[in-house]
Fold these 2 entries.
Entry 1:
Amino acid sequence: MYISKKRIQLPVWGLLLFVFGCQDSEMQIDDTYVFYQPAHFPEATYTLENNPVTEKGFLLGEKLFNDPILSRDGSVACSNCHQQGTAFADSQQHPLSKGVEDREGIRNAPSLANLAFLPEFFWDGGVTHLDFVPLNAIETEFEMDETIENVIVKLNKSETYRALFKDVFDMDEVTSPYMLHALSQFMVMMISDNSRYDQYLQGEEVLSSEELAGMELFESKCEGCHAGVLQSDFSYRNNGLDAMPLDSGRNRITENSQDWGKFRVPSLRNVELTSPYMHDGRFETLEEVLKHYNSGVQIYETLDPSLKSGISISDDERAKIISFLKTLTDRDFTRDPKFFIH
C-alpha cells in the first residue's frame, strides 16, 4: 500500500471502515511510514510490490543504515557519507568521500534523495536496482571493505538483529536479500518533494522576480541536461572538466570508448546543500560550477556536443540562476523527524 499526495489508497475493508464506521471528523491516518507517490513526480521505478514499506521494516533499515557493523572494522556506517542535513550527501566537505581507516575514495558521495524514482545509481550507473546499491559500499575496499557474507555472520550473532528480522520478515535468521530489503525500505522513503519550487509548481508559492528570472535563464541554458521535476534527464555526459579525464566514468561499466569521462547528470534538488560539486568534488560553490560552464570547459573527444562552446553566463545571470537553484532546497526533507536515529 502507498499513498499519493492527492489521494489516500486504502484496502476495501479500510475504505468501508472509513465510510461507515468512522464518521469522527478528527480521525487521523498515520502515513509516516507509508510510501507515497508525489502527484507531480514520475511513477516510482522501485519494485514496491516485491518489498512494500512497513513501519517495522523502515525502522530496521534505518538501524542498519546508521550501524557501522556493516564495515570491516566497525568504524563506518552508510550515514557517515550520507547525512540528512545535506540531503543525504557527504557533509564532510572533502572532495572524495572516505571509508575505513580514513581511506580516500575515487568519487564524492552524491545525495540519496528520491531514489525510488531513479532508473540507475552511482555516478557511472553501475547498479540498476536500489536493492543492490548497498553491496557496492559494503564490499569496496576504500569504503566499508567488508564482505556481504561476513556482514550476515555478524548480524546473526546479534540477538537484537535476529529478533528484529523475525519480527519484520518472520525469519529465524538474517539473510542478505532481506537485509537489503530492509535498507531499501528506509531509502525509498527519502522523498524530497516539498521545496519552494515544488510549491510553486502546484500553485502554493510565489517566487520572487529574481527567482523567476533565474528559472527562465535556467530553462534556456541548463534544462537540456537538468530536465523535468527531478532536475535530471539521467543521461551520461562528459561536461568538460578535464582535457584528459583520468576517471573513465561510464566507460567502467560499458567498456565503450565513447563513454570515457562521462558521468550521470546529477539531480539539482537540494543542490544548495550538497557541496562540494561534480563527481570528484572539485568545486566548492555554485558560483564555481557556473563559471566552469561559462569559461572553463575543456575539450575532449567525448565532450558533450552542447558544451563545445561553453554556456554564456554573465555575472548577473549567474546570480539569478543561483537564486532559482536555492528554491530547490527542501527543508522539510532535511528536518523530517522520521529519519532521525531512533
Entry 2:
Amino acid sequence: MKKKTSTSELAKTVCSPVKITMVAAAVSLLGACTTPAPLPPPPPPPPAPVAERIPYRPLPPGGASYVMQMPEKDQYGQRMTIISGVSDDEQVWHFRSAWNVAALNCTAPQYQPILTAYSAYISDHARGLKRVNDRIERNYRNKMGARRAGILEREERMTAVYNYFALPPARAGFCRAALDVSNRALAAPPSDPVAFANENFDLLTAPFEAFFSDYEQYQNLSARWDAEYGDRYGASQPGWVAVQEARRNGVVVPSAESDPASTLAEPTSAVGAVSDHATGADVPVVPVEENFVSQPVTQPVVSDAQGSGSS
C-alpha cells in the first residue's frame, strides 16, 4: 500500500531547489551592483642616474709648466739648488743678483722702489761689492787653473743663478719680497753691503721655496687625478697630455735653473736679456704679469677610446 504524501510536503520538496536558485541569483545580482575596489597606484619610476661630476685636472701654480723637476731635499730637509751650499761671498753676490733680476722684471708702478733702491745699493757700495766680486773671480781662476776658464765657468753658473731668480711662476711672491727689501733699504740705507745682504737674503729666496712646495702639492694632486680619470678623460686635459708626451718622448724636463720660458705652460712673450757688466752673464727679462696666469682650463671629456669622442 503506497504512502500518501501530503500537500505541504510536496510543496516543500518542489520549492526548495527554486529557493536556493533564487538566493544564488540574488547574491549574484548583489555582487554585480557592488563597486570594485580601486587598483593600487603604479610604483614610482626609478630615480634618474646621477651624472658623475668629473673634476678638472689640477693646474700647476703660477702658470708653471705641467711637467717640471723640483729641487731635491737633503737629509736635513733643505732643498739643494744652485744657490745652496755656497760661500759667504757668493751668497752676497747671489743677493745682488736676485735684486738685479727684480729691478729688471718687477716693472709695475708699485715696484718702482725696487729699481731705486737697487741702483743706490750698487752705487753706494761699488767698492765693497767689487772686493767681493774679485775674491769670487780669484777662486774660480784657481779652481779652473786659468783666468779665461774661470771666467767661463763662473758665467755658466751665474746664468743658472739668474734663471733661478727669474723663474716666472714665482714672480708674484718674489716681486713683493724684493719690494719689502727695497723699502727697508730706502728707509735705512745700509752702511755695510755684506751685512745687509746676509740679513735679507732669506727674504728674497722664500718665494721660491714656497713655489717648490706648491708645485709638489700640484704633482701629488695631479698624479691622483691621472690614476683615477686619466684613462677615460686624460686626452682632453693639456696637463695629462704633457705628462704622457714627456714619458714617451723623453722630453727634457725644465728645472728652476732652466731657460725661464721653458718653465711656463703658456709662454706669453719672448724672453729678453740684459748683460751683467760685472760677470758677463745674461740677466733674463721675462715680461709676464705676476698676478695674471694664461692657462687653459678644459672640461673633462671622455676620450675616443671610450666611445664618446673628445673636443
